[in-house]
Amino acid sequence: MAADYDWNEDTPAEQLRQDQCLMSDVLRLGGTAMAATAKDGLNQSPERLRELADRNYWKDTPLGAAYQSDKDVAIAELNRLNALHDSWKITGLESPGGFGSVADFESPPGTSGNDGEDFHSQTGLMGWIADRFWKSESDFYEDGTPQADAKAAAAVKALGQPLYGSEPDPSSPDWGQQVALNEAYEHLLGDSREPWVRTTHASS
């Protein structure tokens, strides 16, 4: 039977490689807590790495908890910087010359009364922290495998269509294997009918 052929199931070696690639990406792109979890996982056994690299992040996984921790740190830092900006307002001093108005002197850029960019936004720090806060958790788990270009797609179809593009013969002794091979080919083509060629993950 086709079910006897496990082409769509990851081998232990394949699963290990996927976990390593995920953690490598998290180490490079995640916040402090996520990076620490990823670094720890890459130094563990394959079994422990599998636990730490659990992709079901909505189930309070180690990476999911680390993501929330980084998000909490980011919002706390944004709030701290906003409060710091407000503390820079000047009161009780006479406005010197060179300012268009009293508000221009008393309210630094980015505070109420001044629509200019605050100091930390000008240096890029606010944007960097905000990007950390707004980064979607699912982004860490997206498959980074590039889709085949037109030349590679044509080559895959030229080779695969004659072999796997027609219905297997039910009377064939290897019918189950042929069904499994056809299913694998259909999976490779995907919904778009264009091959999704898997290559070594570039970031790993």
Give me the secondary-structure topology.
Layout: H1 12-29, H2 32-42, H3 46-52, H4 62-87, H5 102-106, H6 119-122, H7 125-134, H8 150-164, H9 175-189
Helix pairs in contact: 1-2, 2-3, 2-4, 4-7, 8-9
Properties at a glance:
204 residues, mainly alpha, 2 domains, 54% helix, 0% strand, disordered C terminus
Question: What does this molecule look like?
Answer:
- The protein is mainly alpha-helical.
- The protein folds into two domains: 12-141, no CATH class; 143-204, no CATH class.
- Helix content is 54%, strand content 0%.
- It has nine helices and no strands.
- It has helices spanning 12-29, 32-42, 46-52, 62-87, 102-106, 119-122, 125-134, 150-164, 175-189.
- It is elongated.
- The two termini are 36 Å apart.
- Mean pLDDT is 83; it is low at 192-204.
Give the amount of beta strand, in percent: under 5%
- Measured distance between first and last alpha carbons: 36 Å
Order of helices and strands: HHHHHHHHH
Count of β-strands:
0
> In the residues, how many domains can be counted?
2
In terms of quaternary structure, what is this?
A: single chain
Radius of gyration, whole Å: 27 Å
Helix content: 40-55%
Low-confidence stretches: 192-204
Taken from the alpha-carbon principal axes, the silhouette is elongated
Structural class of the secondary elements? Answer: mainly alpha
Main sheet characteristics: none
Number of helices: 9
